[in-house]
Amino acid sequence: MQAVKQYKPTTNGRRGMMSQDNSAITTDKPQKNLLGSTKRSHGRNNQGRITTRHKGGGSRRLYRKISYSLPEGFSGVVRHIEYDPNRSARIARIQSDSGEFYYILATQGMEPNHRVSSGQDAPIEKGNRLQLKNIPIGSVIHAVEIKRGRGAQLVRSAGASAQLVARDEISAQVKLPSGEVRIVDVECTASIGIIGNEQHQNVAIGKAGRNRHKGIRPTVRGVVMNAVDHPHGGGDGGRHRMAKAPRTPWGQKTLGYKTRHNKATEKYIARSRHAGKRK
Asked: Distance of alpha carbon 165 from its chain centroid, rounded?
């Protein structure tokens, strides 16, 4: 199985282009009752003003309804591994023993006919979902809950994984991909294993048109703008060094500037993702 698909340089756009390896996908027909429509805002608010830049256009796509928290005592079998246009990870279509279908995040190496279960009696195998109090310390996990019953909110992208590093009777410590160690209730659930499609980060876009298909509009550098349009703009057209720290178009620092101000969750961070800093 190849990691990513490379192309011959038949055109300028194909030179250096790489795309995802789709050999693990077993069907291109999604489950109809697990599809939903979404209204695209194109980066604008209810007044029509742009609140998120560089968004617009793109190919139409239907949303896949992912089950981030399987019912207690669930048992089922993987029927297909599918592509999801709304996320970097692959998704697995599983069928419960009662005949109902669900979508979950596909773990590394997951294939059709793989059995998936959930609950306190579920074995410690990839794809199974258990409470943190029932998972051995040191296990590699993903799709971690923050609050009980809310469903997975952490570690959901392709190739991502976390590690259960410590636990007591009340809480557990989970090391996230960023290096942050977060305190989570032991009643919260997580799935075993690493999320699949780990080569997603090696994909090379190759040409601007592929970004337009994804709904990403062109990004213009501030240094080529006029002074009235950006703090970096203006000048005689030469290439000058930055005399000040880089700024956003609205004058806020954009590198090395702390933007996280959430005092309500500071107490749940046992170790910051910045090395040597503790909360």
From this structure: 22
